[in-house]
Design goal:
By secondary structure, this protein is an alpha+beta fold. It has helices at 2-13, 18-27, 35-54, 121-133, 178-188, 190-198, 241-249, 251-259, 271-287, 316-332, 391-394, 396-406, 438-457, 479-486, and strands at residues 68-69, 74-78, 89-93, 96-100, 103-110, 135-136, 157-164, 169-176, 237-239, 306-309, 312-315, 343-346, 349-354, 359-364, 367-371, 374-383, 417-424, 427-433.
């Protein structure tokens, strides 16, 4: 979103036209930007200006006299919230800020559509509370607290507007007096603010790659050299097997996934992929039951001709094949014949930091389970036909699981076991890998390194147009894919 804001700044504060602002931005000698990001930025800027033109004027504001952009952020400082608390707390709003005719307005920009996400009443309440009571920030937002604030200028009206760049959509989330804004804040925020201040447990996950504290986080183990690559000149990032597979298909796709550009999901998934996701979700939901219990042959979808799970819908042959796979899983469910003290954790994220590579590794395991004192990681894959060849090559998630088990970042006093469950048209097959075997460990490390190495040193992420474009959700933004499609 940074480039989008840079261009909007040129339009709003330097009074450039949309075309001139985009041209000036492209000509700036900054860090090179990806061609797809440039195309997305062009589209997003035009969508934003289209949406703004359609927003109704705030109450009491002449339509011919729009609000003026505000360069400084608004923030307010709050004293100790509890007795004996020495801290001052600050709340700030960023995004696009406007004022005039006694109105303060914040426009929150979404990459997708405003219809993509439900209303977040807490987010709305915090924003309007700051709009009503905030002062301009005179110091850098990154300096040590407290911020230096300017003079408070009361507003007669505050408004919060949401804008979706993918379709130029907009909606007014709040419009009211400061008193109404304070009432909204007081009724919705206090408990949430208290949770933020109090803190809680660490929750390693997808955001760890951008966290400055990851190297010292007590819940993220450090394993120098686990990826087998040395530090590059690029900033710290996170890597997963999904990243590696996307990069192998097309470096640009992996980069655009990291940028979270809007996707066109309908072009992304084949029937087999949808069926695999539906089966996976169905089994996961069964493993999450409380109390935990083993899957049985009766734990299958009804009706059999068409069913869905967590939004993955299948019909016809794929529906029947999926039901067969779910029934077959009951024969090899790891919770069968479980002891009373057994436990299972479906879809557990495992996060580890490699300081030598300066990369955060994120693995989403299908199932971690314990029977007696022995832990096992099981990966589950679906395929119509039982494939041949090296399992670690075929399933890089399995290779990463072996590497993680060898590094001691999975549960268990001994090496966590690693299993592969394959649900196929001809029945289920469960294979255990010998994590302690030197040849298995060496092959797993080699597979992981081949996926990581080219990604780790790439700063340009060029597109690889061709077959990779067929199921890519980002072709709308990729200039190379557009050229290929027009050929």
């Amino acid at each position: 979103m940074g480039p989008l804001h840079d261009v909007l700044d040129l339009i709003e504060f330097e009074r450039k036209s949309v075309d001139d602002a985009l041209a000036s931005w492209r000509a700036r000698p900054k860090r090179p930007f990806h061609p797809a990001l440039a195309q997305w930025t062009d589209f997003a800027v035009r969508s934003y200006t289209t949406a703004v033109a359609a927003i109704p004027a705030a109450a009491g504001v002449p339509y011919a006299e729009p609000l003026e952009p505000v360069s400084r952020m608004w923030a307010r400082q709050r004293g100790p919230l509890k007795a004996g608390d020495p801290d001052v707390y600050e709340e700030m709003v960023t995004d696009r800020r406007y004022a005039g005719h006694g109105v303060r307005e914040l426009r929150v920009i979404r990459m997708g559509s405003v219809s993509d996400r439900p209303r977040d009443e807490t987010e709305i309440a915090v924003a309007v509370g700051v709009l009503a009571g905030g002062s301009p920030v005179l110091s850098s937002r990154w300096q040590a607290n407290p911020l230096t604030l300017g003079k408070f200028e009361p507003a007669r009206l505050v408004r919060l507007v949401e804008i979706g760049c993918v379709d130029a959509s907009h909606q007014v989330l709040f419009e009211g007096t400061p008193q109404e804004a304070y009432a909204c804040y007081n009724s919705s925020v206090e408990a949430h603010i208290d949770k933020v201040i109090t803190g809680g447990s660490y929750r390693p996950g997808e955001d760890c790659g951008g966290c400055e504290a990851v190297a010292t986080c007590p819940e993220v183990p450090s394993r120098p050299g686990i990826l087998g690559v040395s530090r590059s000149d690029l900033p710290r990032r996170s890597w997963s097997v999904t990243t590696g597979r996307s990069y192998r298909k097309c470096p640009a796709r992996a980069h655009l996934e990291d940028l979270f550009l809007p996707r066109e999901g309908a072009t992304e998934n084949s029937e087999a992929v949808v069926r695999g996701q539906a089966v996976h979700a169905w089994i996961e939901n069964r493993h999450r039951r409380t109390p935990q219990q083993p899957c049985t042959p009766d734990d299958i979808p009804v009706p059999q001709g068409a069913w869905q799970c967590d939004g993955w819908a299948v019909t016809g042959l794929q529906a029947r094949l999926g039901i067969q796979m779910i029934g077959d899983h009951a024969l090899v469910c790891p919770l069968q014949n479980r002891l009373d003290d057994a436990e299972a954790h479906p879809e557990r994220r495992v996060v580890v930091f490699d300081p030598e590579a300066d990369v955060v590794v994120i693995a989403k395991t299908d199932l971690l389970y314990r029977v007696a004192d022995r832990w096992t990681l099981r990966e589950t894959k679906t395929s119509k036909v039982l494939g041949e060849g090296d399992l670690l090559e075929r399933y890089p998630q399995l290779a990463l699981a072996v590497v993680l088990a060898r590094a001691g970042v999975l549960p268990g006093a001994e090496h966590c076991r690693v299993e592969l469950e394959r649900l196929t048209g001809s029945g289920p097959v469960v294979t255990e890998l010998d994590v302690a075997a030197p040849d298995v460990a060496a092959q797993a490390q080699r597979v992981v390194k081949t996926y990581v190495t080219p990604w780790h040193v790439d700063a340009r992420f060029p597109a690889k147009p061709g077959k990779a474009c067929e199921d890519c959700p980002f072709t709308r933004w990729c200039p190379d894919a557009a050229e290929r499609g027009g050929a």
